[in-house]
C-alpha cells in the first residue's frame, strides 16, 4: 500500500470503503484511508493518494481543453481567412449598390424638380393662353355685333334707297309708296311703342295722320305690305285711325269718315264694347277680311301713318 509523504506523522487513520459499479456492469472495489490529512483510495490491490490524483486529472483535463481550444482557434482562423475575401467582396458590392442607389435617388429628385418646374411653366402658359382666348373672344363678339348692326343699317339704307327710287321722290325717307299714298310704319327700334293718342300725335308731327282704310283695295294692299315691311307685323297689333270714343258703337276714321261695309273685324270681336280704338293685324288665317280688332286706347302699340 502506498502512502503520501506528507501523511507519515499522522497517528490516526480511517478507512473508507466503497464499492461502485460502472455503466457497463464492471465492478471496481476501492478503499479510501485517511491518516491525518492524507486520503487515499484503493483501486484493486493498489492504494493511491486521493488529492494528487484529482489534481493530475484536472491538469490533464486542462491540457485537453487547451489543445481543443487551440485546434478550434486554428480552424476558425483558416475559415476566416478563406471567407474574408468573399466577405470583403460582398461588402464592397453592397457599398457600390448603395452608392448607385443614392445616385439614382439624387437623379430622380432632380428629375422630379425639373418636371415640376416644367409643369408649373406649362400651367402659366395655359393660363395666359386662356386669358388671350377670352380677350379674343370678347373682341370677336364685339366685332360680330358691330357687323350685325352694319348689316342692318346697310339693309335699311338699301330699302330706303329702293323705296325712294320707286316713289321717285314723292315720299319722304323712311316712307313707302303704295299706289298714290305714302305710308310710315313705326318699326324702328328708336321709336318705342305708344298708345293710340301718342301714335296719332307722332303722325301729325310728320305732316300726316293715322292711316284711313277707305277701300277694299287699300285693305288688301296694307294686308300684303305689312309682311314685307316687318316679319313681326304678322302678329303685331298696329294702331290705325279708327275710333268710337265720340259715340259708343259708332266707328269713325280720324277724318270723320264712316266705316264702309261694316269693316273687316276679326272673329269673336265685339266692336260695340267699351274699348274705343281700332288696330290692324295680319292674322295667321291670311284673310284680309278678318284683320281689325278693338282694344283699350291706352295699350302701347306700333302705328301706321299715311299722307
SSE topology sketch:
Blueprint: E1 13-21, E2 27-35, E3 38-43, E4 46-49, H1 50-167, E5 176-178, E6 181-185, H2 196-205, E7 209-210, H3 216-229, E8 238-243, E9 252-253, E10 277-280, E11 292-295, E12 302-306
Parallel strand pairs: 8-12
Antiparallel strand pairs: 1-2, 2-3, 3-4, 5-6, 6-12, 7-12, 8-9, 8-10, 10-11
Structure commentary:
The protein is of the alpha+beta class. The protein has a domain at 171-306: Roll (Mannose-Binding Protein A, Chain A). Helix content is 46%, strand content 19%. It has 3 helices and 12 strands, in the order ββββαββαβαβββββ. It has helices spanning 50-167, 196-205, 216-229; strands at residues 13-21, 27-35, 38-43, 46-49, 176-178, 181-185, 209-210, 238-243, 252-253, 277-280, 292-295, 302-306. Strands 5, 6, 7, 8, 9, 10, 11 and 12 form an 8-stranded mixed beta sheet that branches. Strands 1-2-3-4 form a 4-stranded antiparallel beta sheet. Mean pLDDT is 76; it is low at 1-37.
Amino acid at each position: 500500500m502506498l502512502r503520501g509523504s506528507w501523511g507519515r506523522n499522522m497517528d490516526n487513520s480511517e478507512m473508507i470503503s466503497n464499492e461502485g459499479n460502472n455503466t457497463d456492469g464492471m465492478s471496481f472495489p476501492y478503499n479510501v484511508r485517511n491518516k491525518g490529512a492524507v486520503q487515499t483510495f484503493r483501486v484493486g490491490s493498489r492504494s493511491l493518494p486521493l488529492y494528487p490524483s484529482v489534481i493530475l486529472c484536472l491538469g490533464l483535463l486542462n491540457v485537453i481543453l487547451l489543445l481543443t481550444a487551440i485546434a478550434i482557434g486554428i480552424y476558425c482562423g483558416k475559415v476566416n481567412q478563406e471567407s474574408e475575401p468573399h466577405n470583403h467582396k460582398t461588402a464592397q458590392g453592397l457599398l457600390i449598390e448603395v452608392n448607385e442607389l443614392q445616385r439614382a435617388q439624387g437623379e430622380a429628385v432632380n428629375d422630379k424638380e425639373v418636371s415640376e418646374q416644367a409643369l408649373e411653366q406649362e400651367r402659366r402658359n395655359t393660363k395666359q393662353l386662356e386669358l388671350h382666348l377670352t380677350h379674343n373672344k370678347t373682341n370677336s363678339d364685339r366685332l360680330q355685333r358691330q357687323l350685325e348692326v352694319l348689316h342692318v343699317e346697310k339693309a335699311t339704307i338699301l330699302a330706303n334707297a329702293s323705296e325712294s327710287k320707286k316713289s321717285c321722290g314723292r315720299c319722304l325717307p323712311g316712307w313707302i309708296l303704295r299706289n298714290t299714298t305714302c305710308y310710315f310704319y313705326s318699326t324702328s327700334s328708336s321709336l318705342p311703342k305708344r298708345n293710340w293718342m301718342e301714335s296719332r300725335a307722332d303722325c301729325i308731327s310728320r305732316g300726316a295722320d293715322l292711316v284711313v282704310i277707305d277701300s277694299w283695295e287699300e285693305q288688301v294692299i296694307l294686308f300684303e305690305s305689312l309682311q314685307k315691311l316687318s316679319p313681326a307685323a304678322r302678329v303685331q297689333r298696329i294702331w290705325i285711325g279708327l275710333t268710337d270714343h265720340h259715340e259708343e258703337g259708332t266707328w269713325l276714321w280720324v277724318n270723320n269718315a264712316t266705316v264702309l261695309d261694316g269693316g273687316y273685324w276679326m272673329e269673336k270681336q265685339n266692336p260695340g264694347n267699351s274699348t274705343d280704338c281700332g288696330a290692324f293685324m295680319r292674322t295667321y288665317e291670311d284673310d284680309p277680311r278678318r284683320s281689325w280688332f278693338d282694344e283699350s286706347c291706352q295699350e302701347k302699340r306700333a302705328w301706321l301713318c299715311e299722307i
